[in-house]
Amino acid sequence: GEAAPREPAPSQPPVFATVPASAVYCSGEIVEAGCAGTWQYPLGTNLRGEDVLSLIVHGANVALKVATIVAALMIPAGVGGGTAAGYRGGRTDELLMRYVDVQQVLPAFFIVLLLLVVYDGGLLLLVLVFGLLNWGSLARMVRSDVLTKRDAGYVRAARSAGMRPFRIVRRHVVPNTSSTVVSAVSLQLPLVVLLEATMAYLFSNPGRPAARASIWQVDLSWGYTIAMGFADGAFPTVSWWVVLFPALALLATTVSLSLLGDALRDALDPRMET
């Protein structure tokens, strides 16, 4: 038969901590009038009895999903725009760079914030706007790289051999911008993760309409978990772990993405000596 569901244990402390037994529903061991943590909830529970470790895992899924989708939208747009501007030059370069100027005058962060105030788009709206309206800096970096490569010896040799421009770009120009792309995207992804958590925190405020808060509640973002921890009065008094552990997970993820970007950039940069 199916296993019986676990009874909720509100404000259960982490396995390594002890809190006053009078403050929690203790499902672990009582030690000198204190409730000790249990391995059933390694990182404790919140006021509603939800396992903090499970909330962190769900939040990691949301953060990495958002980062992946935003990168999948930014890279084609930025690489395509920057390559076209740098390789073709002339009017194409002028039009694309003027569009990038306009795009960067209106930061994607404020557009996302404005649209989330007006519409209940949640994560989908965030990734679409940030992915499609934040590739300007990537395009500029790719354009600069392409300008230095379009007259390189191997590109001139390909032209002399009668290779079509599209094939030259695909085989010789774009692959040699990989380190630039990784460098630019690695700077953006930690910001995307922080942006998602910030928006989840702001729009999970219990004072807001329930329909709007539920957008982030379903996704179980780290920002939502932290917001609910503060709303429950859990931090920094008794249930400090409800806010601390998701915040540490958010910090560790952003630092890890930055370090991963640095490592990939060094590995892909052909100028780096082994």
Provide key terms for this protein:
single chain; 274 residues; mainly alpha; 3-stranded antiparallel β-sheet; 3 strands; 3% strand; elongated; disordered N terminus
The outline comes out as elongated
Number of helices: 11
Largest sheet: 3 strands, antiparallel
Number of E-state strands? 3
Strand content: under 5%
Given helix and strand content, the structural type is mainly alpha
Output the strand order for the largest sheet.
Answer: 1-3-2
Helix content: 55-70%
* Low-confidence spans: 1-5, 207-218
Give me the strand/helix succession: EEEHHHHHHHHHHH
Roughly how many Å apart are the termini? 58 Å
- Let me know the average pLDDT: 79
Oligomer: single chain
Task: Offer a concise description of the structure.
The protein is an all-alpha fold and 274 residues long. The protein is built from 11 helices and 3 strands, in the order βββααααααααααα. β2 and β3 form a beta hairpin.
